Amino acid sequence: xxxxxxxxxxxxxxxxxxxxxxxxxxxxxxxxxxxxxxxxxxxxxxxxxxxxxxxxxxxxxxxxxxxxxxxxxxxxxxxxxxxxxxxxxxxxxxxxxxxxxxxxxxxxxxxxxxxxxxxxxxxxxxxxxxxxxxxxxxxxxxxxxx
Length: 146
Prior knowledge:
The chain has 3 helices and no strands.
């Protein structure tokens, strides 16, 4: 049977888990922003879709063009949400592995490092999708320089 960790090693594990917990808070804020953006895009799409039968000619083409961009934005936001959520779950696994390794005194440093790297890759790719979505949302707004 494996030895059980003492209170000092558990306290040390708690200290090590503080940074990933703060990371989870930041990811939660990012997810909130993404979900709000998704809601706005879906609302705009529904509004345009409801007005589409009444539109003719250039107005209809403009609405269909905007709906295509909104569809692309929705796809990007969905991917960003999935990747950021996956990154958050990987951070949770880092924390759980940290405690399990401490409790049963297993060498889990390679597992923790691997999980953390995967979490960061997932978050980076999710942020890249988010950046692309922002570029799409502002790409059709043309502001004249002063």
